Amino acid sequence: xxxxxxxxxxxxAAEKVPADLVTAIRARRANGALLNLDRMxxxxxxxxxxxxxxxxxxxxxxxxxxxxxELAICAIAKLNRAEYEWTQxxxxxxxxxxxxxxxxxxxxxxxxxxDETEFNRVERATLNLTREMTLSVDVNVATxxxxxxxxxxxxxxxxxxxxxxxNLVWRFVVARGVGAE
Length: 181
Known about the structure:
Elements: H1 9-13, H2 19-28, H3 36-41, H4 45-60, H5 66-79, H6 83-95, H7 100-105, H8 109-112, H9 121-135, H10 141-150, H11 153-176
Helix pairs in contact: 2-4, 5-6, 5-9, 5-11, 9-10, 9-11
């Protein structure tokens, strides 16, 4: 249980948070239901509003393949032992064209980036970049060259943005004790 309680439906009905913001967040969610993450963020409407706009763009406006985006997010979840993110994003990865065998291989996250059976060159480069950015922040030259060889400049920028963003998400979730719905 988080130290700060989640914003409840009663809080929303009592207009303790801006109604337009709640509506905007619900519109971004597949079933319109607020996640516990949303209910925590709503304690600060400016943070919740910025988060919703930024994460909405990350999730729907990029030229980067949604499968690569979700592969990176799932890898971040495993690298950080962030079960909340895994629970949220593993089904999305599958819906975007990823395979269950790839998710299974991510259970051994420290070697998944070299698995030529489960992952193609672009996916391995994505996993390697994700691993380096998540574990040490610094990215070695060979990894930078490999990702540039397989993705466009825009896709590289977007992938780096996804990796940075979902490491931020994880840190917020853990620091606030946000649990699964």
